[in-house]
């Protein structure tokens, strides 16, 4: 399973890449990855006009959009739209960071799974 990753390089510039989540176990007809320890889960609600200028992630975390997409601009200028249900691993906790903007005209709800 591929997921999107936002990370920072040695100069503090953020970039996107796809990373592969390997299947480790099969339970009946379901495949699972290895267990990833998490420190907490929380949910957010962003207004439809939400736009957050350059900022870093407060911690390493998975973000899963539940009902609206978000457009993220990385420090290198690449722009990606993270759709509903897509998994993003955010790791740019230092450096320049990224810009986030809700796509469309809907309030956005998302699940954040903290790893640190």
Overall CATH architecture: Sandwich
Number of helices: 0
Q: How much strand content do the residues show?
A: over 45%
Percent range for helical residues?
under 10%
Give the beta-strand count. Answer: 12
Mean pLDDT: 96
Order of SSEs, N→C?
Answer: EEEEEEEEEEEE
How many distinct domains?
A: 1
Intertermini distance: 23 Å
Please give a quick description of this structure.
This protein is mostly beta strands and 116 residues long.
Key features?
116 residues, mainly beta, Jelly Rolls, six-stranded mixed sheet, four-stranded antiparallel sheet
Structure description:
The protein has 116 residues and is mainly beta. It has a single domain, classed as Jelly Rolls. It is built from no helices and twelve strands. It has strands spanning 2-8, 14-20, 25-27, 30-32, 40-46, 51-55, 61-65, 70-73, 79-82, 87-90, 98-102, 108-114. The protein is globular. 18% of the residues are buried.
Helix/strand layout:
Elements lengths: L1 E7 L5 E7 L4 E3 L2 E3 L7 E7 L4 E5 L5 E5 L4 E4 L5 E4 L4 E4 L7 E5 L5 E7 L2
Parallel strand pairs: 1-10
Antiparallel strand pairs: 1-2, 3-4, 5-12, 6-11, 7-10, 7-12, 8-9, 8-11
